[in-house]
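[job 0412] stage=complex_fold ligand=flavin mononucleotide status=START
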Amino acid sequence: MIPQRAQSARSLLFQPFPIGQGGLVLPNRIWLPAMVTWRGTEDGFVTPSVREIYLRYALGGAGMIVLEATGIRDVASGPLLRLSHERFVPGLKALRQEMRAVSASIVVPQIIDFLKIATRKPTRVFMEDAVRRGALAESVLDVSDAEFEAGLERYVQGPRLRHDFLYGYRQTIEDLSREEIRQIPGWFASAARRAKQAGFEGVELHFAHAYTMASFLSVTNGRTDDYGGSFPNRMRLPLEVIRAVREEAGTEFLVGCRYLGSEDIRGEDGQIRGNTLADAQAIGVELARAGLDFLSISRGGKFEDAKQPPIGEAMYPYTGHSGHTCIPRGKNDPFGVNAHLAAGIRQALRAAGFATPVVASGKIVTFDQAEGLLRAGQADLVGMARALLADPDLPLKWQAQADAKARACVFCPFCEQEDQRHRVVTCTLWPKDPADHRRRLTPAAWRPDAPWDPHEAFDATADDL
Ligand SMILES: Cc1cc2nc3c(=O)[nH]c(=O)nc-3n(C[C@H](O)[C@H](O)[C@H](O)COP(=O)(O)O)c2cc1C
Ligand code: SF4
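[job 0412] stage=complex_fold status=DONE, emitting structure tokens
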């Protein structure tokens, strides 16, 4: 039963939640899932802008703050944060200290491995590159761009190269040598050690969406060695990663993961492929058996059904059907649209005798929705990504029963677009910067006694949405 708003003082949402084996307690059950901010330096260091947004989240009082996807390979990856070397520890340590000074939130970085991806090339550049690499005969350069595009099947042998032309080159797990795979657990483990050195209470392993680990877990994993095919083979690398992280960081360090309750890849024939909830339930039981401290359930977000990017841009895995299920924003998507996946996984865990906490997310925005999920036993913790981006103070406002003062996410594409274009992520509902119509100013921290300015709260115009 969904509680009356007046009962919020007795809500489950604001009850503390013990988590992990190190005596940690989340001050409440509101969970900020990872959201890339594109605010680091070009070489992955913390900036004042990174500090600004995470301090803002910390002030808002979410029980758990998952720091955005943070790279574990020491390779150039633009303004994404990184834990791929000791040089990144001091900046992250200072960030964690600042957050601790203002908030009791637990903070863990989401650590990620991803494979190479290139932008889609103009036709002539693609042709010249392919000739240089010996992938196309030199004679192809005598053909005009238009002829090449029209006769693709004739000039480009093999679906892989055609795909590279149409979508841009993308490395897949089937391309990885065993030597490369063997390095991955060590990268995760070293990143976890650095996270611990930086003062974070734990890490979230990124086993979701379009990235390396989710591809290993997927039924679409096409490897023919003992890292692909059967269920135990698909679980092999994730379990190796968990073992390596535990050995490096110990049992008291919080180690959980984010993975997919369903992959929802829509093929050109309209059929849905990839892991289903049943696959995810089996995976969840093995992850719990391996000793993970929490499972955060996401959905979709795959490259396999992403839209063709414009020339000069790389594929973005949130543009196709699976991307839509990952970041739901359709008017017809009900609130809590993905909660049944968390509920199904939680049920399978409990049936197998595991008490591992499960985090649900996906278009959850009001107190009643969040509290209702907990009361119905669909999840142990409530993830709200865009709702907390729109209004980091939701936890404070709900606790003070000042819901009317909340800036409610309208599920527009603005923050996603900024992410896709690798621009600093903000929310269209934040106050506008008078000097630049695209920029938004981080909203000031809310206080119960602060005067209420409705213009600051709802500053979107139809043009923005
Ligand atoms: C701008 C943006 C960046 C995101 N970055 C990440 C990320 O780094 N890691 C991740 O697991 N999910 C990421 N997501 C997905 C969210 O964590 C979340 O699962 C999704 O937005 C659905 O939840 P919501 O409806 O509460 O926003 C991102 C979403 C957005 C909008
Ligand atoms: S930009 Fe739009 S979708 Fe993103 S948090 Fe703000 S209102 Fe929600």
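DSSP finds 17 helices and 14 strands in the chain.
[job 0412] exit 0
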